[in-house]
Every structure is written in structure tokens, then in C-alpha cells.
Amino acid sequence: MLRLIWRLARLLAVLLVLALALYLGRPYLLTAIGRYLVTEHPLAKADLVLVLSGQTLLRIPEGARIYHEGFAPKILLTREPTVRGTAELLRVGIRFPDSQETAITILEALRVPRGAILTIPERADSTRAEMLTVARFLKSHPVKRLILVTSKSHTTRAYKIFSTGLEPGIQLIMHPVPNDPYDPTRWWQDRSDAKDVLHEYQALTDFWRLRLWAMVVGQFTTVPSPVTVR
């Protein structure tokens, strides 16, 4: 009986020490979780700067800055799915620009020539779908180096998806938007950042699931026929 009590006491002590260590180390652990989502490479001359769709007002100006600083001669825009309710408004004669059209308007206002803006009209409802549309585009517009602009917390997942799905000879430069308010050192104190982190890890889990399945079936992705680009 005494031996059992002694063992239980030791187990309780170990659990208390672990709980204390976890509590004291919580900020470091949470910061590591937040920082893992950010992948950044030094900017260098590239053939194209790709601005992923989403958060248009945040990402597009950074694409324009990269263009004006001479890092890339062209800007490529992907396209988001149609916003719910758009069809109903069109039926009554109301039309408003989608995010890609808004992005073009912003770029032109920032003195980026229309001839330097490339667009993919095909809509993509996920980062992997964006990668597939870009892969098809690059079949007819080959590049050796590509700058990829997106939000900070999205860079790691985007890098994994694009580096896995694009041709192996394409060098990717990940560039998170500097003005993005996401802070990996305190993301758990901001509701918006916390939602982003939870979403990214959920999506990363799906990415790793697909990668595991790829190892099983021996194939990750096939690039379909080229898309029409305007």
C-alpha cells in the first residue's frame, strides 16, 4: 500500500513539474507555432512576381513595389471564386468588380502598366487549385525564378504546395507582405491571427495527408491542359 502511495506521489510530482514547465514555456511554444507558418527568402531578380489572390488591399501594393524596384518585369494575378450573391445581383443588372479586377485597378493606380499585368481568368478555390492554374500558365510562359507574394501566415503552406507542384527547375522566392499585421510572437492574443493560425494548421494537415497519400499511390499531381490567359 505504501509503495502504491509512493508511486502515485511520484507520478503526481512529475505531472506537476511537466504542467509547470508547459505553463512557463507556453509563450515560447506558441511563438514557435506562429513562426513556423512564416517562410521568407531574400528578394532577388526574377522573371515574374506572383501575387496570390485574397487580401487584395494588403498584397497587391507589395507586388507593385517589387515591380517598381526592378525585381520582376511582370506581375501575375490569380483569381478567387465568385462571391456568393453575385449571380443574383447580375440578374437585376447590378455588377461590381471582382477581386482580380480590383487588383488591376490598384496596380494601374500605382503606375504599373497594363502590359506588365498578367491574369489567369480561371477561378481557384484553394491554394492548391491556384498552384495548378499557375502550373498550367507556366507551361506556355516558362520561368526560372518566381517571386511569390502572400500574407505572412500563409507563406509556409504556399511554399510547400508550390514547391511540390511546380516544375522542379523553378526557383521560388517566398515574400510575405511586410505590412501584414500578423505577429507570430503574440498571435494567440489577437482573434484574427488566432483564426489564421488554426486555419493554416488545419490546411497543413490536409497537405501532409495528401503527401502521405502521394507516397502510397506514387503520384502527387498531374498538370492538366493549358489554360487561356489574357
What tags apply to this protein structure?
230 residues; alpha/beta; Rossmann fold; five-stranded parallel β-sheet; 10% strand; globular; disordered C terminus
Which secondary structure elements does this structure contain, and how are they paired or packed?
Layout: H1 2-36, E1 48-51, H2 56-68, E2 75-77, H3 86-91, H4 99-109, E3 117-119, H5 127-140, E4 145-150, H6 155-165, E5 171-176, H7 191-217
Parallel strand pairs: 1-2, 1-4, 2-3, 4-5
Helix pairs in contact: 2-4, 5-6
Describe the overall structure.
It is a single chain. With 230 residues, the chain is of the alpha/beta class. It has one domain: Rossmann fold (3-Layer(aba) Sandwich). It is built from 7 helices and 5 strands. Strands 3-2-1-4-5 form a 5-stranded parallel sheet, sandwiched between helices. Strand 1, helix 2 and strand 2 form a beta-alpha-beta unit. Helix 2 packs parallel to helix 4 and helix 5 packs across helix 6. The longest helix has 35 residues. The C terminus is likely disordered.
Largest sheet entry: 5 strands, parallel
Low-confidence stretches: 17-22, 220-230
Q: What radius of gyration results from the CA coordinates?
A: 22 Å
Give the total of domains: 1
The CATH architecture is: 3-Layer(aba) Sandwich
CATH top level is: Alpha Beta
| Strand tally | 5
Question: Could you give a short description of this structure?
Answer:
The protein has 230 residues and is α/β, with parallel strands linked by helices.
